[in-house]
Amino acid sequence: MTFNIRSGAGWFRLWVFASFLLGAPTLAYIVKGYPDRLSIEIHYKMTMSGLTPEALALEKSDPRNGFYGTPRKWTVPLEQLRAETEQDYKTAISELPRKQLQHVLLGIAAWIVASLSLLTVGWFLGWVIRGFTSPNTAEE
Q1: pLDDT for residue 9
Q2: Residue 3: inside a domain, yes or no?
């Protein structure tokens, strides 16, 4: 059986169409979950705003907090917590380009694996169907 893209097998055409359809959620995953500097900065600012003596005192006064044990931020000096948060922020910013590339490559790899899996399943399904047809009709 020779293959021609214009008169290609129906399975191949279906696979190309389904691969494009699989590309839409993959693109949505890449765009929606793309790590950016703004989200890192927002997380940093919110964490730092919670690391004030007033905020910690308010948190300690709530009887619901500490049910599962004493949080680390209640036992470590405030300056050390702020320094650790600052270091985590700097590390996250420096690793941002690597994480962005990793996120995009993971999305593309997932799309490729899903598309090739679909092609393999379609090919095997066609192989099984061809096994049940008579030899005279298989050549058409």
Answers
A1: 66
A2: no
Into how many domains does the chain fold? 1
Through-space distance between the first and last CA atoms of the chain, rounded to whole angstroms: 9
- In 3-state terms, what secondary structure has residue 134? coil
Q: Residue 1 domain-assigned?
A: no
- The verdict on residue 2 lying in a domain is no
pTM of the model as a whole: 0.67
Q: What tokens does 7 get?
A: 């008169």
**Domain extent for 113:** 10-138
Task: Confirm if 82 and 51 have CB atoms less than 8 A apart.
Answer: yes
Whether 123 contacts 11, CB under 8 Å: yes
pLDDT digits (tens, 9 = 90+) for 11-25: 778 888 889 999 999
Residue 15 and residue 119 in contact, taking contact as beta carbons nearer than 8 Å: yes
Length of the chain: 140
The beta strand positions in 55-135, using DSSP E, are none
